[in-house]
Amino acid sequence: MPADITSPALGVVAGSGMELRDIFDVITAEIPFTQFPQLPPTTVDGHQGRFLDGWIGDQRAILQQGRFHLYEGLSMAEVVAPVKIMRAMGCQEFVFCNAAGGLFPILEPGELVSITQFEPWYCTRLPSQKTVHCKLMVEGCPLAGSYLWMSGPSYETRAEIRALQKIGHLVVGMSTLPEIRAAQRLGMPCAALSCVTNVCGDATPLSHTHVLEVARESSAALCRLLRAHAQTFGQ
Predict the structure, then answer these.
(1) CB–CB of 196/222 below 8 Å?
(2) CB 107 within 8 A of CB 64
(3) In sequence order, what are the residues at sequence separation of 6 or more whose Cβ sits closer than 8 angstroms to the Cβ of residue 220?
């Protein structure tokens, strides 16, 4: 099917290590971030730095491969710039994916969680500290729960984990909240999916390499959920 930039698109943002190219039946364009002067270079492993434009069945979709984080020393405007670019490209709805730490032992690496709300841990760089609720859910996802956002870039200490567990959130991570707030300010409905890449408090040493490996192994399951979600676009 030929590209049609006038067709409304579902925007999908890939998390660290996620290989989501297979959500498409047809890819009509690969657009590197370097074509957009407002986008800085990607610096975190597992973030390729490009947009893929294509079709899932008869639904147009745009996949962002590579995201930006406040812990990279970037401004809030730089972190959320891809949201505005994808809106200009025709996106009318978003699914933000991310790699996250599971806060309870019931969560196994590789499990997927549909996020119901985001709560920020105190950060002076956020304009407000309000909880953000997702307007959409990804049906078919086995688990649903809330995400606690921390600015990073370090993993949580055991003392922090115990404190976070008392709050009651299911997963914790360092991305997505700034972007989802930006999208909602633009009036765009959003959903979010977390891939649990490690269980907080486990004796296994944490590393970004491990995060990338688990996210990559979970990509096929993520693609199935995203392809199914695309069929509900606009409903």
Answers:
(1) no
(2) no
(3) 22
C-alpha span between 17 and 208 (Å, rounded): 10
Is residue 12 packed enough to be buried (19+ CB in 10 Å), middle (13-18) or exposed (0-12)? buried
Structure tokens at 206: 């944490």
Cα-based torsion angle of the residue sequence 32, 223, 213, 74 in order, rounded to the nearest 10 degrees: 40
Q: Split the chain (235 residues) into runs of 10 and give each run's mean pLDDT.
A: 68 92 96 94 76 96 93 91 96 95 87 94 72 91 92 71 79 92 95 88 61 86 95 77
Task: Please give the model's pTM, rounded to 2 decimal places.
Answer: 0.90
CB 93 within 8 A of CB 233: yes
Closest CA to 109 of 234, 233, 214: 214
Domains and CATH numbers, the chain: 9-100+108-116+135-144+173-197+209-230 (3.40.50.1580)
